[in-house]
Amino acid sequence: MTSANPSTRRDQVLVGTLPDDFLRASPATADPSGPQQQQIHRDEETARAMQYGNTGGATVGRLSITCMQAKLAKNYGVTRMDPYCRIRIGHAVFETPTDMNGAKNPRWNKTIQCNLQPGVDAIHLEVFDEKAFTTDNRIAWTLIQLPQLIFSGESKEDWYPLSGKQGEDKEGMINIVFAYQQVPVMPMMYAQPQTMVYAQQMPVVVPGYSYVASPVPGYQVPSTRAPPYAYLPAGYPMGYQTQPGMMPPGGPPPALQQPPPQQ
Prior knowledge:
With 263 residues, this protein is mainly β. It is 9% helix and 32% strand. An 8-stranded antiparallel β-sheet has the order 3-2-5-6-7-8-1-4, with no helix packed on it. The protein has a two-stranded antiparallel sheet with strand order 9-10. The chain is elongated, with a radius of gyration of 36 Å.
């Protein structure tokens, strides 16, 4: 076997500047309604919104809540308590990390951010003692109205009383910081779910078996077209017809006898 001449191998190599459409799909052949082009369009809108803030003026209220610390009235239990906070804002529930051995003076410094739904003007806050082998013990709770000052762009820090076993507003105090701002709404980046559409079921005749209805993927059959009929095997009267997916009267058709092989 002879080796190729170096000049011959050089002729098979593309030398020079590559064309602009090298290894690229032609825009003329790309389907503008395809899922790939739709995803590219959504990515371009998201990048444009993040860079220029082009969201059409749509905004949503973002509420920021910072649980700083608490001063509780009593340490329940033999050992030091492990307190954490649970905050309910509308239908959303958030929790702070547990301050291990925080006892009566837990510190969290945890900031929670969420979208403020219309009609929500208060938050429900609870303080729990985390347990390892039993249910967490609820120590204190309170209902805090959102300060109207935060809706003008200012933050609000204050101490709020807690209720519990000691009585109303006698279980201690908790330090909370509120803030509120309007943020632009980002466009949706989720593709629409694709569904498989099946046409009407057509019976399949298998020798030795009854009728089996199998789904046929494709387009819906127009209503003006008569439904297809199944051909019955030998043994049934002439002119008898069945609808698709229906069992003929008297049970399944008899098995077809295969002719004996010829010698």
